[in-house]
Every structure is written in C-alpha cells, then in structure tokens.
# Entry
Amino acid sequence: MKKALVLLVLLLLAAGLLFAGGKQEKPAMETEKETKEEPKVVTVFGAFRDEEARRFEETFRPFEERTGIDVQYEGSPEFEVQIFVQAEAGTPPDISALPQPGLMKEFAERGFLKPLWPEIVRKIENNYTQAWKDLGSYKGNVYGVFHRVNAKSFVWYPKKAFEQKGYTIPKTWDELTALSDRIVADGGVPWSITMESGAATGWVATDWMEDIMLRTAGPEVYDRWVNHEIPFDHPAVKKAAEIMTDIWLNPDYVLGGPTTILTTFFGDGTFPLFEDPPQAWLHRQGNFIIGFMPDDIQANVGEEVGVFALPSIDPRWGIPVLGGGDQFVVFNDFPEVRQFMEYLTTWEACKSWAASGGALFPHQDQNFDDYGSAIERDLAKILVNAEVFRFDASDLMPAEVGAGTFWTGMADMISGVPIDEVLSNIEDSWPQ
# Structure
C-alpha cells in the first residue's frame, strides 16, 4: 500500500513538473514572438511636409534596411506650436528637427533636451566646421546635429544673356557696383528686388541687412548685434542699412523702384531676369528660389541660370555666407535614437536628397557629384568653403523683433521712413 501511495505521489509530482515546465516555456516563447513582431521605433517630428517630407524620408531608407529600426517621421504646418505642447505635456517625439537655434536653446534651458554623447560630438567635430557645432551648442553642451541647410548669400543672373553681353562675375563690392553701373549705361536695370510676403513682408530686406552686416562689421560684431550686446541703432547697423538703401532706393538700380519692391511677391523676383531681353539682371536670394523660377527655366536650370556669391565688402571677412538649417535634437535618449542621430552626421544620410534637389548640406565629407545639378554643386561648394557662416539674425533674435519690428521696420525704410527713425524704433521694441 505504501509503495502504491509513493508511486502515486511521484506520478503526480512528475505531472506537476511537466505542467509547470509547459507554463514556463509558453511565456518565454510568447516573449520571443513579441520581440520579433515589435520593431524598434524612433519617432521624428519636424516642419518638413509634402515633397520635402518625402525627400527626407528617402534619406533614411538605407538606415532602416540596415538596422531594422523603423523611423517614423511626422511633419506639421503648426510644428512650432505643437512641439511646445508635446514637450510640456511630457509626450515629445524621440527626435525633433528644429529650424531655429532659439528653439533649441529654449528647450535646453527648460531641461527638455538630452545633451549629445561623446561619440556623436566627435563625429560632428570631424565632419562639420566649428560654426555648426557652435550653433548646436548651449551652455557648454552640444544638443544639435545639422542636416538639411540653406544658404542665402547668392546672386542669380540670366546665364546666356549675361554671357552675350560680356558681363563678368564680380568678386568684390566695388566690382558689383561697377557691373551695376555698366548695366545702367547699357540701358538696362541691374536689380530685381521683391519682398511682398503677406504678414511676413520684410524678411527679404532683413536678409540683405544681415548679409551686409557680415561683410562690413564682421562675425563678432554680428554676434553682438544678434545678442543685443550692441543696440539696434549702433553705427555698424546704420552703415549696413545705408549700403543696402544705396541699392534699394536708387531708381536706376531697381526695377520699378520702392513701390514694386513692396508690392511684388518675393517668389516672382527672378521672372524679369528671364524675359527676352532681360528686364533686370541680378536677384539676391537663397538657394530655394530655384523652385520659384519659371517652369521652362527650372527644366533647364543648368544652362539658363547663373549664380555667384554676394561679393566681399571688407576683405578681412572673405565672402561670408548667411543661412539657416534644421538641427536634430534628442528628447528621448535610447540606443536606437543614438544610432539614427549618428547616421545623420554622415553623407549617406544626405546624398539622396542632394540628388533630388532643393537642399544643401554642411558635411565636410560630401561628394559634390551627388548633387543633381551643376548649379547646386556650385552652391554647395560656396557653402562648405565659406570662411564665415552665420545663421539668419532675425531667426535668432526675440520673435517680437526678428519676426516683428525688424520686418516691419525694413518695409517702413523702403517706404521712405528715415534710417535713424527705423533703427531707433526697432531698438525701443527689444524686450527688456
């Protein structure tokens, strides 16, 4: 009887162990299955939309295929509002593409951002000029990786007609003035300048002012101006305004004069260059303006369009480049985020967009042959080889100035309000 009881107990124990073993194996199998079914996801939020979003998404396809990480990008027309809402609610994306350094600094100041780690900082130092690292830094920490950027310090001209006239590309401001005078002597008008942009009317003029400030006062004074370490009506700022208005308010130099400048949509500024014969010969604007040129010109941009860097004024500063760009910052730090951020520092993350057009990149290791057109190769070389690069000043200033009184003040100045009054009013508007 005892033997039978012992045998029964052993059988029950064995059955229990088998049952328990089965229960242990099943969760392990389910965990393994769940791991395989759930891809590693990195969320990215930015202002790229439509075609820009598509081109950005193409840049990280090789990364996804190689790593198995699913990068999910979302773009919004209300990006700057939404990113604040998400950050304050504690639900930010893993990574965000910020178009203004001021946004990065505000988020970093409030503790929302994670500083970049030593490995990626070394990649930035090895593949970017110091200016880009500085723009992505705040209070001793590096927060941003720049990817797609734009540059504004370009002068566009009708290539075929320009060459037929025997005009040559100016290398200095004096040569630019001499070219303008020759065009006038030939019965033409040198400049097409347009700035109407709805509520944002004025930004075209601020870009001109900033470009001239870099060329006359140099980068250090420019930085002091941006940070309000010198007043807005400082003599260096007034000098830049005077040089600008020597062109803008000269009826012989600008097609249609101040009225046309103020009332013509900024995107139409290149149209007069490509009439037959040209109604104007020069237009200063950023690389994005190609997308606003007449369709037939865009279709043959390499043969129809010429471009050169806005010339030097003070040789001490060489030929500076003014621009902007999108820096990627980290809200949530984990290994897949680090992998993607480090990928953005490489040329592999850029070349498909370079081939598609509409973007420039600051990477030192870039292959200029990857750009889809000769003209964008030229623009990229100007950007990468610039001795001085600075971010658009109005984007760095407090919004009430940079996107407020600076814009409206420039429109007032072109309307005839004296320079001293305009600059004084902008200075008075600076938040205390």
